[in-house]
């Protein structure tokens, strides 16, 4: 694709690639590279510049460029490829940048089914890594058992818990027939067979509380059966009008935990423990810091008495609800008549419940937290490849052999450390294009190994973020350095995101301040007003008014500051009445 | 539940438990146990016998039994429990036995959604272990990437591949609306909102060829993009009239691999490689031997040019198709216009495809291959717990401490070997009930540790199958013995199943022989006529006639005997014409 002229949309990322390649040439020169060793890097630089628009001062003379250019490879000529790597800068259009990063990194793409996306291999591997880590925490650390419940839920189940049906029944996929048949009017067309209409429609699960609690009824009999802790990894579907990949799609993948307890205290403790686990998990695995809090009554899950949330701050200053945990009280216990016999045999009590979940939305959180104008940035625990080694084979056979041997040894050593390593030895792709591709895909570390490196018993490291410069490292030390570096890289991403979160929360803003700052915030804007931590008197009507006036909602009442009693003695920033909570306001996806 | 009288259906398993407990008492006596040490085992034996029907000679005197009986624990009094552990013998009713084993081992249960089952934690863990193993083979060994495609497929997609629509469009769940609303006539009732009818109905995927091939069209451009190998772990749904848990449910879990290749040879080779992998996987992981073969034209997958299959033999003599791999030729390539540019740039060719899948049906295969009248039997690779340690704490505090210490050490050593170990220290369940429960659930090995064992620095091993007798083993040697024993146990299960498969295939039967033997075969019967390997002239009309006359189908043309040319020179056992294949006939689930 480097041989096709760049479109206007391509330009910013092309310029970034040119700068990066120019830097590579410079550092090669500085390290005393011979003309021969320099040639491939210079060639790439010229080719990159050749994609600049006609008349651009950095564009090389046509003739010179043409002579050096190899015939385009079939892959490079792909129209799909040519359009897939352009990324609009965040500052120009944050929403478009988000879509572009997903496309350029090949995480996902839109599907022929309205509102659903296709998760491509790179995105699937990120999700599978995330899932494996979280599953271990859920099952081994918290003693929850996985199970699987039906996709389709009888319509009548949804009506059992009154609030729940209000919250969920509205927009969902309804199965009404169990057969298609050829249309008598046009046999090439298929229609739902009128003879195969279901007596009771089935709903594609928007969440599984109802069907799981109907099982709990027969699974729970004695206090010995409690707590009962079940988790399900599943696809769910909520019909959405406006969708964005990962953030909001009609169908999405998630885990949903459902627990039943003998006491309200036990259930509440579990709901809080799980939101704590989510917060720890997102930090440790996704380098994603969050504010842990409780939702205001109007933002609670349908059927919950308390909803805990982790809220993350995206690079445009908007919040993203990244996981929730609900204390259900006895709502589902009563709706599904789930009781247990206490140790006093004559007494039966209704059980208390929780539910908690995170979804593929977390991949959206990852993207909007760490990525930049060059593409995706991934923390090592969920990077499908953590290291890509690009061998620069040289021209002589003995050079090729030496590079090949060094690369094999290096890859083996890194894999021995448990790292996921890709050796990109495709001989039909130029080095610059490889660098550019793996940058877009967010691989934490690139290692280049050329003949001169081997001669000096070294290789060259380039981190995707954290360090601007390449660094030459001795081949004997590289495995240990990289292993340690991966941890530092994760810490760097986490600390950067923590700094942004801390800097993105304003304290002591007046309502007028907040309103004024948020007015400037548009959906596509970058680096917006952020979040506002303010004293607040809990009041649903005022909450609605603010939502109308500022498009801002209460993301949560953060647990830490509220438990410290920070709201005490303060007056509500909106009503002027005594504050009941410190509330975190902001715009949200 | 031991305190409730056994129903007639319970009797066989009750007698098995009594025999096992009597054996335990005998071996305790033989090992010189004191009266005190013997007492708990004797008590359990008496309690078990107490469940025998009135008048049974083995039933103890009522008074004596009553005196010894502790108050029933709440869990034991559960009506759900009391009915969940009875297993009809295979010889009495094989179908009922299958259902009983699933219930008694808590693998799964029926759901409120017609035709779907609930996979309970024990069954889920079996599936998750199976899945993890197979996923490694698919992704790491065969270089296939996981991805995820939408659950709902536009109706029009199904019509694109003509044969495919005939095979799949008929019985599937059709989504016609995207919203429910309160019924104006009865606001407590919900109805599909007529204003939310979809313009084009969506189908819950019965399989994903259509939507995946529509993506392949944009993913494949050059020969460099081939082969493209994608796998998806997903739920699928095919509306089924008669369902059986795991074997045939409307919704089921599976993996579906889809590959695209530049040449027909490449695709065919891949289809065969994957059926070979399935065969290896089922043997190595599930101890399930299979016959690898190719389907007759009338049994092919809709849209395939060749369907490969692995067929297993269940204990009732019926075959179970356990995995299939399809060579699709260019059918989907043409239907979805998927072409690639060859290395000669001026030429574009249509790609060739394969698809292959296994499902939760494999859990059904496991059950019907290894399990017995006492319940589930699991090969170690997919046993949620491989070892259960039952501490028999004794009465004195120092005995309890010594047993606890020995058990902790033992569990740690076994876990250090990578084994999944459960310590069953529930103090409200009697030992006999524990033994009985873990036997039902198929745990390969039980280890008992009592005070006298600790004094002798030993413990007692009881394998679920393989060895009838308990064996005392020194505590210092037990970890190594168990580790080695797990492999032997797997080999024992595999070899037993291989012997049954080899013995279950009749050679050189005449058609009249086969018909006569199969006539005696009923659905619920145990130890049926088995399979028939016969010379056959490929003929769909004759195949239909045999199906009608014998309820038998061609399970496959086994690859090995056909590649050896075994059919050459033989005449068809049905038509008398020259044989084209050796065919494996039999009844099947």
Describe the structure.
With 589 residues, chain A is of the alpha+beta class. The first copy, chain A, folds into 4 domains: 1-86, no CATH class; 121-153 and 209-370, BirA Bifunctional Protein, domain 2 (2-Layer Sandwich); 385-494, 3-Layer(aba) Sandwich (Rossmann fold); 505-586, Translation Initiation Factor IF3, CATH 3.30.110.30. Chain A is built from 19 helices and 25 strands. The radius of gyration of chain A is 28 Å and the shape is globular. Chains A and B meet through helix 4, strand 2, helix 6, strand 3 and strand 4 of A and helix 4, strand 2, helix 6, strand 3 and strand 4 of B. Chains A, B: Its EC number is 6.1.1.15. Chains A, B: Residues 10-66 form the WHEP-TRS domain. Chains A, B: Pfam families: HGTP_anticodon, ProRS-C_1, tRNA-synt_2b, WHEP-TRS. Chains A, B: InterPro entries: aa-tRNA-synt_IIb, aa-tRNA-synth_II, aa-tRNA-synth_II/BPL/LPL, Anticodon-bd, Anticodon-bd_dom_sf, Pro-tRNA-ligase_IIa_arc-type, Pro-tRNA_ligase_II_C, Pro-tRNA_synth_II. Chains A, B: It comes from Tetraparma gracilis.
Strand pairing plus helix content of chain A: what structural class? alpha+beta
Indicate the multimeric state.
Answer: homodimer
Number of domains of chain A: 4
Looking at the overall shape, the CATH architecture of the largest domain in chain A is 2-Layer Sandwich
Within the largest sheet of chain A, what's the order of strands? 3-9-10-16-13-12-11-24-25-23-22
Fraction of helical residues of chain A: 25-40%
| Principal-axes shape call of chain A | globular
Q: Uncertain spans of chain A, ≥5 residues at pLDDT below 50?
A: 1-5, 62-82
Roughly how many Å is the radius of gyration of chain A? 28 Å
Major sheet description of chain A: 11 strands, mixed
Going by CATH, the homologous superfamily of the largest domain in chain A would be Bira Bifunctional Protein, Domain 2
- DSSP helical segment count of chain A: 19
Mean pLDDT metric of chain A = 89
CATH top level label of the largest domain in chain A: Alpha Beta
**Most extensive interface:** A-B, 79 and 80 residues
The percentage of residues in β strands of chain A lies in 15-25%
Total strand count of chain A, please? 25
EC number (chains A, B): 6.1.1.15
Biased composition (Low complexity) (chains A, B): 75-86
Keywords (chains A, B): Aminoacyl-tRNA synthetase, ATP-binding, Ligase, Nucleotide-binding, Protein biosynthesis
Region (Disordered) (chains A, B): 44-87
């Amino acid at each position: 694709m480097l041989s096709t002229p760049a479109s206007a949309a391509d330009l910013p990322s092309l310029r970034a690639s040119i700068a990066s390649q120019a830097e590579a040439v410079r550092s090669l020169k500085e390290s005393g590279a011979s003309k021969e060793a320099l040639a491939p890097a210079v060639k790439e630089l010229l080719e990159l510049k050749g994609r600049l628009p006609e008349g651009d001062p950095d564009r090389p003379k046509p003739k010179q460029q043409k002579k050096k250019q190899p015939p385009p490879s079939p892959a490079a000529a792909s129209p799909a490829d040519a359009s897939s790597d352009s990324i609009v800068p965040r500052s120009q259009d944050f929403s478009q940048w988000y879509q572009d990063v997903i496309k350029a990194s090949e995480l996902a793409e839109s599907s022929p089914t309205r509102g659903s996306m296709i998760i491509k291999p790179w995105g699937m591997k990120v999700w599978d890594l995330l899932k494996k880590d979280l599953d271990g925490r859920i099952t081994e650390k918290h003693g929850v058992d996985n199970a699987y419940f039906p996709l389709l839920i009888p319509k009548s189940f949804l009506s059992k818990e009154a609030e729940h049906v209000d919250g969920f029944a509205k927009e969902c996929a309804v199965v009404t027939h169990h057969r298609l048949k050829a249309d008598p009017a046009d046999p090439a067309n298929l229609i739902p067979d009128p003879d195969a209409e279901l007596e009771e429609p089935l709903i594609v699960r928007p969440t599984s509380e109802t069907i799981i609690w109907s099982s709990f009824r027969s699974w729970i009999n004695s206090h010995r059966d409690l707590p009962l802790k079940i988790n399900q990894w599943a696809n769910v579907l909520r019909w959405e009008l406006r969708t964005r990949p990962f953030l909001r799609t009609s169908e999405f993948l998630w885990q949903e935990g459902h627990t039943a307890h003998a006491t309200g205290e036990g259930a509440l403790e579990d709901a809080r423990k799980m939101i704590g686990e989510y917060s720890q998990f997102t930090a440790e695995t996704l380098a994603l810091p969050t504010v842990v809090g409780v939702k205001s009554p109007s933002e609670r899950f349908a059927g919950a008495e308390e909803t805990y949330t982790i809220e993350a701050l995206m690079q445009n200053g908007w919040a993203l609800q990244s996981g929730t945990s609900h204390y259900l009280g006895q709502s589902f216990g009563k709706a599904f008549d789930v009781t247990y016999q206490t140790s006093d045999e004559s007494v039966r009590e209704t059980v208390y419940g929780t539910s908690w979940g995170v979804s593929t939305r977390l991949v959206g959180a990852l993207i909007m937290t760490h990525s930049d104008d060059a593409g995706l940035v991934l923390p090592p625990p969920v990077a499908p490849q953590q290291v890509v080694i690009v061998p620069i084979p040289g021209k002589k056979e003995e050079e090729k052999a030496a590079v090949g041997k060094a690369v094999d040894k290096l890859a083996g050593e890194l894999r021995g450390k448990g790292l996921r390593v890709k050796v990109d030895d495709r001989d039909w792709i130029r080095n610059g294009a490889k660098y550019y591709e793996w940058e877009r895909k967010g691989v934490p570390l690139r290692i280049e190994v050329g003949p001169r490196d081997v001669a000096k018993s070294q290789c060259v490291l380039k981190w995707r973020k954290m360090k601007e410069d390449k660094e030459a490292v001795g081949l004997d030390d590289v495995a240990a350095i990289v292993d340690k570096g991966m941890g530092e890289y994760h810490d760097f991403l986490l600390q950067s995101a923590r700094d942004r979160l801390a800097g993105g929360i304003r304290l002591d803003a007046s309502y007028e301040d907040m309103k004024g700052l948020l007015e400037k915030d548009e959906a596509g804007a970058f680096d917006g007003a952020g979040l506002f931590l303010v004293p607040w008197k809990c009041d649903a009507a005022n909450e609605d008014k603010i939502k109308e006036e500022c498009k801002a909602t209460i993301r949560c009442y953060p647990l830490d500051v509220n438990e410290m009693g920070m709201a005490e003695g303060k007056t509500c920033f909106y009503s002027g009445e005594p504050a009941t909570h410190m509330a975190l306001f902001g715009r949200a996806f």
